[in-house]
Structures are given as structure tokens and as C-alpha cells.
Amino acid sequence: MNPVQTGKGLAVVTGASTGIGYELAKCAAEDGYDLAIAADEPRIQEAALKLKEFGVRVEAMQVDLSTPDGLRRFASGIAALDRPVELLLANAGRGLGDGFLDQDIGEAQRVVDTNISGTIALVHEIGNRMRMRGEGRILFTGSIAGFMPGTFQAVYNGTKAFINSFSFALREELKDTGITVTCLMPGATDTDFFERADMLDTSVGQGKKDDPAFVARIGYDAMMNGEGDVVSGWKNKLMSADANVTPAETLARQHRKMAEPGSAEH
User: What is the mean pLDDT of the chain?
Assistant: First the structure.
């Protein structure tokens, strides 16, 4: 038996197979939104089965949003549903540890293509549809990492600095359009991120992390309330406040202690 189509529009969630993205999709499903979700791994189908238990329709696509082809396929899949997108939760992200010159440049470029290029291309596509209707909500998953130079995570932190900045600029541009823009800025969260980024031997990789369900709920509620940004967790709020008044050179040195390969042993 297929779920009855709700009176609400679609919630589009990227990077929704696990972690913060899955929990964001769960928040939207609990709110009665039908879903269009994407990730670059087969687990997106498992996530879809669990999300359907909330009685909403779920369209899941395994696509690589770091590529133009993946973006086209996902955008076409959304358009084929012929439903207005009310919520866009741009969460897809990729990390990479180690020193920049020791990284595979293809992998480093893929971090940029996923976190920045793919994200802004999807927001441009769906944001224009929202503007034509005069309503919509956009949530970016930024990071407190965007406030500090990421020694041994240089490319990742740089991409999050871009997303944090971009979200504030876009919010101001769209302030009179009926579209709200919110940036969720979590700290270290208990997801597959550190394993995928090959950072399990680092201090931050081994350290205490936030619950992704808690982080997602903070971000989702902030988006629904039309807030501009939210940092999840009191410890992360302190870190972000401290980063605003600490010299960049000092922040870079502090980040080395968290992210240098082998730092978990110190």
C-alpha cells in the first residue's frame, strides 16, 4: 500500500544515507514531508526503507553530487516528481585528512566538488524554483571547522569556510523573497565522517562527539524558525566564539593538535 501524498511539498535532503543527513530527513518525515533523498552509496536505499515507515513517500537516488552527471540525474529525478520543493537540506559533504601535499589531488578535488561545486549548483537549481513560487526554506550543513585554518584538514576546512560565508550572503540576497536560508554549524559528530576521511588515528577522530540526531534536530528547528545560523552544542559555541578572537596562526597550531595523523597516541 503506497502512502497517501501529503498536502506538503517535498523535502530534498542530500547526503541522507547516514549521520546528520539521515537524521535531517527523519525530522522532515516526522513533520509529514515527502522526501527526495540522495547519497553516493547504496545505503541510501536502506535509509529510504526506514524513512518510509513514517508514512511518507520517499524517492531515493544513488548519485555522486560532485559530478555534473550526478547533479543532472538528481535534479531530473526531483523534477519528475512534479512537486514543489519546500525544504532543501544541502548536507552532502566529504572530508579528507593528512597534509595537503600528501593527499591524492583527485581526492582533494572531490572534496571541493562535493562540498562546494555540487552544493551551490543544486541550490541554484532548486533556489530558482523556490523564488518563482515565493517560498521555501534552505538549510546548509556548514561547520565550526569553517572558523579555523584546518591544519591537516586544509581543504575540508576551507570548503566549510566557504559554505558558512555563502549561506550568510545568500540569506541577505533572498531576505525579501519568502525564502529563508539557515546554516547549521556542528562540531565533531558521531558519524562515518572520520573513517571516510582516514582520520581514525587523530585526536579529534578518537575524541568525544555529538549525537547526529541531536545535531540534526537543532538545525532542522532553526531552519523551520527561519534563523540565520545555529551552532550545535555549548562546547562548539565556545569554540566558535573563541575562534572569532584568536589569531589565525594560533588556531592553525591548535588544529594541528586535533587533526595531525597519529595525534590520538599523544
Answer: 90
